[in-house]
Write a structure and sequence with these properties.
Blueprint (H helix, E strand, L loop, with lengths): L1 E4 L6 E4 L2 E4 L2 E4 L4 H8 L7 E8 L3 E7 L6 E7 L1 E8 L10 E7 L5 E4 L3 E7 L3 E8 L8 E3 L21 H4 L12
Antiparallel strand pairs: 1-2, 2-10, 3-4, 5-12, 6-11, 6-13, 7-10, 7-12, 8-9, 8-11
Length: 181
């Protein structure tokens, strides 16, 4: 697999080696040893999540203030624009974000380490999205950063107003959001 650190180097784009012919394709979607070598440290995943969303659904920007989760994410059907926002106050990239397109066609994955808010918007008619997480979900510690925070200034590539959950409609601005040390 190919691992490419993005503009925020702790966020890594993972591109698997895909073997295909007229019959279809095969690729190793996850290999613990190769993944740890690619990001430069050991990570253990404890939970897998799977979501399905329709076009213009925006999920995020989510994080857990206690029990922070690292996430390895990918789209297995459809296309999404995926975003990670650095919420580590001690980081030189605090408040900055990176975004990439993930799709069933490009088979790319994104490593979003603990200390980041994460979200995505669906660009195709539908999308199915998989997350591997490094900690369990604790709803009492979950937080939402406002998807349209002017300081973070994500240029979401969607058409029309995004469809948000009630929780995501209440996302906080970076200036008011809880963050990490």
């Amino acid at each position: 697999m190919k691992a490419t650190p993005l503009a925020i180097p702790d966020v890594v784009l993972i591109e698997p080696n895909v073997f295909g012919d007229e019959r279809g394709f095969f690729f190793e979607s996850f290999n613990q040893r190769q993944f740890n070598a690619a990001i430069g440290y050991d990570v253990e995943f404890v939970q897998d999540n799977h979501s399905r969303s329709v076009k213009n659904v925006l999920r995020g920007l989510h994080y857990q203030i206690q029990h922070p989760q690292g996430k390895l994410v990918r789209a297995v059907q459809g296309t999404v624009y995926d975003v990670a926002v650095d919420l580590r106050r001690s980081s030189a990239t605090f408040g900055q974000h990176v975004g990439v397109e993930l799709s069933a066609d490009n088979k790319r994955m994104l490593w979003v380490p603990p200390g980041f808010a994460h979200g995505f918007v669906v660009l195709s008619e539908t999308a199915e999205f998989l997350y591997k997480t490094t900690d369990y979900w604790y709803p009492e510690f979950e937080r939402s950063l406002a998807w349209n925070d002017p300081t973070v200034n994500v240029a979401w590539p969607h058409s029309g107003a995004p469809s948000l959950s009630g929780k995501d409609q209440l996302g906080k601005l970076l200036t008011d959001a809880e963050s990490f040390a």
